[in-house]
Amino acid sequence: MHPSRRIRSILDGGASGWEIVYAARDLQAKGERVTMLTIGEHENPTPAPILDAMDASARAGRTGYSSVMGSLGLREAIAARASRRAGAPVAPDEVVVAAGGQAALFQALCAVIDPGDAVVAIDPLYTTYPGTIRAAGGIPRIVPARAEDGFQPDLAALDIACAGARALLVNSPNNPTGAVYSAASIEGLAELARRHDLWLISDEVYDGMAWDQPHLSPRALPGMAERTVIIGSLSKSHAMTGSRIGWAAAPAEIAALIVDLALNANYGLPRFIQDAGEWALREGDAIEDDLRAAFRARRDLARAALSQRPGLRLSPPQGGMYVMPDIRATGLDARTFAERLLEEERIAVMPGESFGDAASGHVRIALTVTEPELADALDRLAGFADRLAAAR
Length: 392
Prior knowledge:
Elements: H1 5-8, H2 18-29, E1 35-36, H3 48-59, H4 72-86, E2 95-99, H5 100-112, E3 118-123, H6 129-135, E4 139-144, H7 155-162, E5 167-171, H8 183-195, E6 199-203, E7 228-233, E8 245-249, H9 252-263, H10 271-283, H11 285-306, E9 313-314, E10 322-323, E11 325-326, H12 334-345, E12 347-348, E13 350-351, E14 363-366, H13 371-390
Parallel strand pairs: 1-12, 3-4, 3-5, 5-6, 6-7
Antiparallel strand pairs: 2-8, 7-8, 9-11, 10-14, 13-14
Helix pairs in contact: 3-10, 4-10, 5-9, 7-8, 11-13
């Protein structure tokens, strides 16, 4: 007897960068003050009005089984939001609610690929992408994007990688780089999907956090609505990370397959949590606006603090909750830099290698603390990098 080879193959071994997180938490448990700039977790809990809606629903008795596809009210609210953000109509029967964007991504991949199919993704990439592709039975084909190009996709390299693949996975605004793909990049990715007859899975969790240019969804482009699956979530937009409300907006045939999978997996989300999500989408625009404004201000703060420093080079962060400076001028690899930064300055960041080879020599900084704390941490981080660079 032996355990599942498929599950054992999800992770490819080695260090993941989470060692920095665990070490920082150990220091905090010992009473040390550590500035955590590692995980995309809001510094404040879910806003009270959303929790009030959740509480009211639960106390009204909505604690039993719910629709596997998601409640009609929540799916209607998601469809309305997705239609506005994507610039193309999305119907409620094209939306499936999932236990967070991560589950939605896994279910969407299962619905569009078969075991052994190749899925193309762009590096730097969210750390779970390769494992999620493998968990769905696929084979990752990872194509690097270059820092000197602002981490925009390399369309020529992608064209080669897409030959014989089944799906293309893209993420803009991008985690970890903060890049927002240009209209030319999105149009190029759509053309690749059409030419190679690919499903295009578009992770748009940060669609409301594009600062310098509009977010463009590939679903809005000609011939793309029938081959695009949008992944969305309330985790970042409404500070609902623990509520696990995500969704896939997909062609109806794919949505139906996702429901078939969910029926045999998690069997739907609690109705009272779905009702809170519906309230957030229908009544919570001010909450999202406040969060968006806070992260834009923090991006501006980070750009000012980390630009034109001898120890750092910062690709312009255009969206999302993160910035990813190049620290190679210090002479350290990213993991060593992160370890020493934690040890000497009590600041925790993620090594770029956690997000793919193209992020090597970079660190990801989550802008998830208050502005005064962030300003102090960024000043100390930049000074730390400058001293290392000067000592070379």
